[in-house]
Amino acid sequence: MTTEQKIKTSLSILFIIYFLSACSGSSEPKGAYWEGNANFMHITKGKKDMIYAVDVIGQKVFLEGYYEIIKFNTDEVLYRIRVDQLEFGKTEGGTNFCRVWGQIDETLIRSYLYSTDCFPIS
Hints:
- This protein is of the alpha+beta class.
- The protein has one helix at 3-25; strands at 31-34, 38-44, 47-51, 54-55, 60-62, 66-71, 77-90, 96-104, 110-116, 118-121.
- The protein has one domain (31-121).
- Mean pLDDT is 86; it is low at 13-24.
């Protein structure tokens, strides 16, 4: 093998290692936390009801976790959600938001918590 071939082989191997390490580092968020307001969209077969000013203790959730949706500044539990999907985005004004999707009260009803100033947890 000539020196030129060794250099090309070494560079090819380095590129492959770099590519594989970059791909392995990217992962889906495992949770979400927020610093803004939270509202809850309860979705049933023919109806959607937005409940404004809700909270989750600690203002963070993780996939596959169970959380109580409570009325803001009270102990009143409105619903229990099992988190199975996280959706992140930005409003037209540039505010980060998330939708925390899940099943409600051990039913097949899927609803979501909508929070502003929300960020992923890896």
